[in-house]
């Protein structure tokens, strides 16, 4: 019962914290992010039970165990990310995406997907390992913090997709970025199974939560910067183009070369080293 209480509290906190920010970032009307979040809620179960588990059942008999491990490590980014994209690509959602609300809609989708994942994890744990669910709810604080972070990450990882759809730009770079980010989120857990560099499983498992937190902080900074850049600002300040003389916000994604950053002027298109 304690684990169930922890799962319910986590879902409530996720709705209050991440849901509030998603609604604020999306702006009015609130029905659009609310609808996007609700539509995303069953998609984790759909990707797990309708795609991932049947696919794994086929691959178990078709692939050697060593190959199967690396293929299985790709399940989450290759199956969960497209499930979230489905909501963004729905005609009545896509038609209403704008540069101003794209990040908020993406966060709402990720929150809905993450809430569905909490329900699935709680149900599967109580079904298959009920002996681990009977302690006081606060004993599961690690689970609660991890799920809160994951609910945010699920949305943050599809923000590039939503932004490109809203801007009318080619969407495939955003799709690849989201899948790569998802694999990076799971990286310590993958490494825990192969124990490379002589680092034991316990150390990799211990690194998982700090790594997850760093990923969340990095993506949070990116979202704040993206919001400021819409109004002509940046968390890194501004640079002046040597070719056309106009100023532009420094990009967080610019290639860092020590004291300089290699970035492209959005006005004239010239690449340059900005100090």
Account of the 3D structure:
By secondary structure, the protein is mainly alpha-helical. The protein has 2 domains: 2-231, no CATH class; 238-275, no CATH class. The protein contains 12 helices and 5 strands. It has helices at 2-26, 31-40, 43-62, 65-72, 75-89, 91-94, 102-128, 141-156, 159-167, 172-185, 187-194, 201-229; strands at 238-240, 247-249, 255-257, 260-264, 271-274. A 3-stranded antiparallel beta sheet has the order 3-4-5, with no helix packed on it. Helix 9 packs antiparallel against helix 10 (172-185). It starts with a helix and ends with a strand. The mean pLDDT is 89.
Count all strands and give the number. 5
Whole-angstrom Rg: 20 Å
| Strand residues, percent | 5-15%
**Sequence stretches where pLDDT stays below 50 over 5 or more residues:** none
Whole-number tally of structural domains: 2
List the secondary-structure elements in sequence, H or E.
Answer: HHHHHHHHHHHHEEEEE
Helix content: 55-70%
């Amino acid at each position: 019962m304690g684990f169930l209480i922890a799962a319910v509290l986590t879902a409530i906190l996720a709705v209050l914290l991440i849901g509030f920010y998603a609604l604020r970032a999306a702006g009015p009307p609130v029905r659009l992010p609310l609808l996007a979040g609700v539509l995303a809620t069953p998609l984790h179960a759909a990707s797990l039970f309708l795609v991932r588990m049947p696919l794994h059942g086929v691959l178990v008999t078709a692939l050697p165990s060593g190959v199967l491990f690396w293929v299985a490590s790709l399940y989450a980014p290759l199956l969960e990310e497209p499930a979230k994209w489905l909501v963004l690509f729905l005609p009545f959602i896509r038609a209403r995406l704008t540069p101003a609300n794209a990040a908020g809609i993406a966060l709402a989708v990720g929150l809905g997907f993450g809430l569905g994942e909490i329900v699935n994890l709680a149900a599967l744990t109580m079904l298959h390992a009920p002996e681990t669910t009977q302690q006081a709810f606060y004993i599961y604080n690690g689970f609660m913090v991890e799920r809160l972070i994951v609910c945010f990450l699920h949305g943050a990882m599809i923000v590039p997709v939503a932004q490109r759809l809203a801007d009318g730009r080619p969407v495939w770079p955003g799709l690849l970025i989201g899948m790569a980010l998802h694999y990076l989120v799971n990286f310590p857990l993958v490494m825990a199974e192969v124990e490379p560099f002589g680092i034991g499983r316990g150390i990799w498992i211990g690194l998982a939560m700090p790594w997850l937190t760093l990923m969340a902080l990095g993506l949070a900074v990116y979202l704040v910067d993206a919001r400021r850049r819409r109004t002509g600002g940046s968390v890194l300040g501004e640079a002046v183009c040597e070719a056309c003389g106009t100023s532009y916000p420094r990009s967080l994604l610019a290639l860092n070369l020590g004291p300089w950053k290699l970035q492209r002027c959005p006005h004239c298109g010239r690449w340059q080293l900005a100090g």
